[in-house]
Amino acid sequence: MSSMTVAVHTGAVEQLADQGYCLLTDLLASDVLAELTAVFEKNFTQDQWGRNEFEGRRTQRIYSLLAKFPIVANLVEHPAIMKLLRLHLSESAILAACQATRIHPGETAQSLHADDDLAGVARPRPPWSLSVMWALSPYTPENGSTLLVPGSHKWEDGRKPDADEITSLSFDPGSALVWLGGVYHGGGANTSAESRTGISIIYFQPWLRQVENMVLAVPPASAAQYSETVQRLLGYGVAQPTFFGHVDGRDPIKLINEAIT
């Protein structure tokens, strides 16, 4: 397994298409990063341990973040992420999952997987999802940084990664690691003495069912506090040009306006 630090570069769009991932650094203003760090320092509790090996017995998770912490919208609709999302998925892409994760010392490596494989459609295929791991603490190969297999989104069915094909990235708080849904990935083992904390966000094509039911998690009255971009990502919008997701023949974004009038 190799380790590398990837600097910001102008070829992020091309690298995402070619290698299946890219790393964007220094994306957050210092005050936003400080507030996010403070919020999650006080909100991880001892009853949030993973329920199985995949979630991680030494990993804590907080779900439905937009229902609890409005500041997370800064990540969900970050302009750099929106650019990649629109280019690689769809103008009508939706938010599938948004959770905070903290991997503690002693956690073992998560099994490598590709999110798009859940649909059971033969590889290779166009991307159905895009994932972003936002770092709120330093990420290193020693503390459980995300493992990736570059280029694996182009593989045929049946091929599995060898150990020397797996990459572990090092990056700083405020950075975002982005990968396509066909890329094999997983949380790394934490062999250090420190935990690592991040926010995992997944976006789907608009015709896929969300991992988290965002409309129930963030009902219209709560969604009203967010921008229209976030509202539509939550599911309060129709997919163009199909008009998938309408309510009584209307764009559901209108439900939010009615909820606050």
Automatic annotation (TrEMBL):
Query: For this UniProt entry, which segments traverse the membrane?
Result: none
Q: Which Gene3D superfamilies match?
A: q2cbj1_9rhob like domain (2.60.120.620)
- Molecular functions (GO terms): 2-oxoglutarate-dependent dioxygenase activity
Q: Which PANTHER family match?
A: PHYTANOYL-COA DIOXYGENASE FAMILY PROTEIN (AFU_ORTHOLOGUE AFUA_2G03330)
Organism expressing this protein natively: Mycobacterium spongiae
Identify this protein by name: Phytanoyl-CoA dioxygenase family protein
Name the domain of life: Bacteria
Cite the entry's keywords alphabetically. Answer: Dioxygenase, Oxidoreductase
